[in-house]
Amino acid sequence: MKRTKVVDALKLTDFGSTVNVKGWVRTHRSSKAVDFIALNDGSTIKNIQVVVDPSKFDAEMLKQITTGSCISATGVLVESQGAGQTVEIQCESLEVYGLCGSDYPMQKKGQSFEYMRQYAHMRLRTNTFGAVMRIRHNMAMAIHTYFHEHGFFYFHSPIITASDCEGAGQMFQVTTKNLYDLKKDEDGKIKYDDDFFGKQTSLTVSGQLEGELGATALGAIYTFGPTFRAENSNTPRHLAEFWMVEPEVAFIDLTDLMDLEEDFIKYCIRWALEHCQDDLEFLNKMIDKGLIERLKGILESDFVRLPYTEGIKILQDAIAKGRKFEFPCEWGDDLASEHERYLVEEYFKKPVIMTNYPKAIKAFYMKIDDEESGFGGKSGQTVQGTDVLFPQIGEIIGGSVREESLEKLTAEINERHIPMKDMWWYLDTRKYGTCPHGGFGLGFERLILFVTGMQNIRDVIPFPRTPKTAEF
Ligand code: 4AD
Ligand code: MG
What we know:
Blueprint: H1 6-9, E1 18-30, E2 35-40, E3 48-52, H2 59-64, E4 70-79, E5 87-98, H3 113-117, H4 120-123, H5 127-149, E6 153-154, E7 160-161, E8 173-174, E9 201-203, H6 208-218, E10 220-228, E11 241-250, H7 254-275, H8 277-286, H9 291-300, E12 304-307, H10 308-320, H11 337-348, E13 352-358, E14 382-390, E15 394-401, H12 406-415, H13 424-431, E16 437-443, H14 444-452
Parallel strand pairs: 3-5, 6-10, 12-13
Antiparallel strand pairs: 1-2, 1-4, 2-3, 4-5, 7-9, 8-9, 10-11, 11-16, 13-14, 14-15, 15-16
């Protein structure tokens, strides 16, 4: 008999017909007269109830069907008597695919997320991780749909690269060299000529530089792929391997860029509310009671657009009035997450797009403010960079208008001692038919954190990579 997915079976109304469902047992309650098996197949957060008359089945076999076991159940679809469900199955035949011993690590309810991380290969079968993974899929669909509908082309930037986009030197090397027998030149430097690519290469920290090549040919592109950072930050917001979405657009200015950031992120959140209702309701109940309210709140609020210099003033006023922060915040300092959260969660109580940062704390490619820039920038000292700051998360998006002048960009590269030989191809965008353009990067897992209400970024990606963790 053809299998019906639980998500579809729960919508059936032709009571009296026979259906087959397959899945993993969430709970099995038995009494003398009747057994109830709650079955889940991952297609939805909801279980279907399989009602078993124990007198019709082998008692020993029934007893072994415990939480985690995989079974196939066929029976008559009936309207449910119990509260909270619409249909159930009066079981006529049962097939066991795989039993699950009492050592099944996801057995008990209420296990901590720390505990479950040790069993990342099994935690996917729990209600919470099922919900998070379905939402993750839906957010990927939202992203592709948004950009497709807005005329952006999906552009595949390379994962192996010889350049360091963010200039932070936090890259994982890619080599086929024998690390036990590294050849060095007279100065003791490693020789890469005979390495696979003939030069030093790494996993990319961002697809932006190649994205700019795409945007200055196709007009508007987006990349969406894995990104790697060897930063040793053991925080609930950082992964060593994460996914980033990077749109890049020709002929865009700072206002257009901020409009795009706000419109895009609202679209994704609206998509979640429309397509992930059951999973969100579950998470709202079990993980974060304010979740759905917060998501709706984002759709209703206009994001604050705040120049860095003004932000610093607000923070300093707060300090003058007695607000304590762990880290200093003088003009020129990079804001710590406590500062960002103060602005977003306490002061404005809505998302903030911070702009026009001091150039020293931002990447080399950002457009330098001049007399005409506006937005509270300081000529020659600030850049047209934007960070979108979100409640609970802090920075969710980082982007900028790009410096399109070859002269200014080259000066910046020289000032920062970025090796020019690795950058020649990037500079060609400015040399040949340069154009105003800009874009941003959204940390996909940070979006998932926000949309699910989960607290730790390790719990919104199937198999997290963090310092000292690469199991599974
Ligand atoms: O602000 P970042 O470093 O910006 C860039 O990489 C630019 N090249 C993007 C662009 O303009 N095309 O990173 C962008 C976003 C951050 O705002 C954050 O959401 C996420 O990527 N992110 C991380 N997410 C998880 N773990 C990490 N270690 C992350 N580092 C950045
Ligand atoms: Mg950033």
